[in-house]
Amino acid sequence: MKRILYTFIGGLAASVLFLGVAFLSGYLLEASGIRLYDSEFDQQRNFNIFLLGWLLFGALGIWIGWRISKSTSG
Asked: What phi-psi label fits residue 33: left (phi over 0), alpha (psi between -120 and 50 degrees) or beta?
């Protein structure tokens, strides 16, 4: 049960961290006058990049949580 909890917390923490970084970077780029997309195609491409990044960060968080649970279990 402990491994599942650590794994879940790792994935959740990584997801929240990635969401915060993505939101903050988008906000800062918009505030500095940089347009992130000009068309619906560009918007969809950016969304797909976001989903891929979220998947990778989540998988990394899950892996780190799993490794931590293995090291603390003895």
From this structure: left
Query: From CA 42, how far away is CA 39, in angstroms rounded?
Result: 5
Distance CA 16, CA 57 (A): 10
CA distances (Å), 11 to each of 5, 27, 38, 70, 71, in order?
10, 24, 33, 16, 17
Q: What is the pTM of this model?
A: 0.81
pLDDT digits (tens, 9 = 90+) for 15-51: 999 999 999 998 999 999 988 888 999 999 999 999 9
